[in-house]
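re: the backbone from monday

yeah here it is again, tokenized this time
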């Protein structure tokens, strides 16, 4: 397959082949690496940086840098993220630093960001969402994920006539969502009608039958943090025991793989369920 690709995608596919042959992790969904994996990959990349620092020949320096590139691409493989579209975004952002004929540098020579700099993180998050789903990312307020989701699902179910920033997730979570459309209804499945054992089947069935599936959950359980907020995320797909969510909240920014059991616990903790949104009568 690597022979059919070009550029960074070609290189990343070759590293993916190495991971598969060497029984290294390969993520099928965008995944935040656990701290132990982060620690290992940081150590491996730091070894190459140290080798580069100590190298005395062109060959040794080049060898260290190429090895560093290999480990960096391997990290993206383990995260389940394609590097080429993100590289293009970062490149365009960097070119904005040197456009217009005026370039500002630090004392050590590093090119500085201009005063009107716009960070590329949201554009990168959008690229990851587009690569893994049929949605265009809308970033919502911390406690207003439904307002953003309503815009994201509009191409599939039509305009959703809900108030936007004035609606808090806390106010509407826990029952069927009023889509504001007579021909787009929420066939809500409460957590009380599911169990952890059959949750996978309910997700698979819902994704097969309904154009949009949304889950309400408490973030602390799903993301394994201390966050007490309740919010919505679009359920995109399931691969094994992982579920791909699109969470438009600014601290998550888009596509993220979560454990299916964590999602069920988070959904139960929020007293919510699966919102299967589709045409009236589905």
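seq for it, each position gets an aa:
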């Amino acid at each position: 397959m690597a022979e059919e690709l070009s550029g960074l995608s070609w290189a990343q596919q070759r590293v993916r082949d190495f991971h598969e042959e060497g029984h290294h992790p390969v993520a099928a969904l965008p995944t935040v690496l656990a701290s132990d994996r982060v620690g290992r990959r940081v150590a491996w990349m730091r070894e190459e940086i140290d080798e580069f620092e100590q190298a005395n020949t062109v060959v040794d320096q080049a060898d260290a840098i190429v090895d560093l590139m290999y480990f960096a691409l391997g990290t993206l493989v383990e995260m389940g993220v394609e590097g080429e579209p993100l590289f293009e975004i970062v490149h365009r952002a960097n070119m904005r630093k040197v456009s217009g004929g005026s370039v500002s540098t630090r004392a050590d020579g590093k090119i500085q960001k201009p005063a009107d700099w716009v960070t590329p993180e949201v554009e990168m998050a959008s690229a990851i969402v587009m690569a893994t789903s049929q949605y265009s990312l809308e970033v919502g307020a911390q406690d207003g994920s439904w307002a953003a989701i309503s815009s994201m699902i509009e191409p599939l179910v039509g305009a959703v006539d809900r108030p936007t920033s004035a609606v808090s997730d806390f106010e509407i979570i826990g029952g069927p969502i009023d889509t504001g459309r007579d021909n787009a209804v929420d066939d809500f499945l409460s957590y009380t009608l599911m169990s952890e054992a059959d949750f996978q089947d309910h997700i698979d069935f819902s994704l097969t039958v309904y154009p949009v599936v949304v889950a309400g959950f408490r973030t602390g359980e799903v993301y394994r943090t201390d966050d007490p907020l309740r919010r919505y995320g679009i359920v995109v797909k399931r691969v094994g025991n992982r579920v791909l969510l699109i969470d438009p909240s600014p601290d998550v920014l888009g596509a993220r793989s979560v454990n299916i059991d964590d999602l069920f616990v988070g959904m139960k903790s929020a007293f919510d369920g699966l919102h299967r949104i589709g045409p009236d009568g589905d």
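The radius of gyration is 22 Å. The mean pLDDT is 90.
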